[in-house]
Amino acid sequence: MLRHERLWRSGCLRRFFNVRTKGEANFFAGSAEGGFNNRQSGKPTMKIVIISDVHGNYEALSHLPEDYDQLWVLGDLVNYGPQPGEVISFVRNRAAYVVRGNHDHCVGFGEAPRCSPRFREMAETTRRYTEAILSEGDKEYLRSLPLHVDVWIGKMRCRLCHALPSDPPFANSLCNVEQWEGECRRVGVDVLLVGGGHMSFGRKVGSTLLANPGSLGQPRSGEPVASYAVLRDNKLSFRSFHYPVNLTAEKVRAMPISATVRSDLIAILRTGSVPRERPQSVSVGSLVR
Ligand SMILES: [Fe+2]
After folding, report:
1. CATH number given to 3-275
2. Of 50, 58, 62, 208, which is least surrounded by CB within 10 A?
């Protein structure tokens, strides 16, 4: 288990962030007059679906069981998954706002993904696959994505970024509590929406509602589900759904990458957990003195 996962599952960070792995939790994002609750005026309310970390999993994306007025995407459209081109095309056609994740950045600019050791081989191997099958136009699109976007909904200011506002897109959003308090204070928005980390969480930090919708395409919450969030009537709801994981797994199995990486990627999709690291092979000769 990775260090940040251990911290997360130990309970301390989970309790602080009110981590959600299933069901629905509601958080109020602002006052009725300051936000975007138009019920009193009789106008229709806007429904915003927020997704992140799709990672080339088009099966999960295409089974999203929601309609929406706006789709917001918090980065990591590509890498790890078998269908990055389809995901980019879906997002380009439908999303109102998209920010660049670390994997989008690395595929777009041809750089190393800077992942934690357990994910390094998976990320590097699939980056080569992703770069090979994407068009120049797709890569140009990834490069063009902003590192953060500020969106005003009525009088409510929302910041969208992939990781920490001070270090998008590379920081780990599963960071410590004090760090998040500092980040929220510095940014000073009403709603701070972040991706990365692949786990849903939400809570008020000072006057800011901090939330992560979790991962749509590569769960690490311990369940094989696709997670997302809905913002409507000043209320943020966390949701998840089952999709045909087997179809994604079959496509991963057909990727021209090492059997080890394929097996790890499929295990994550099927369990929502990162498999234990395999013991390094040691030659018998090295054990004999
Ligand atoms: Fe990600």
Report:
1. 3.60.21.10
2. 62
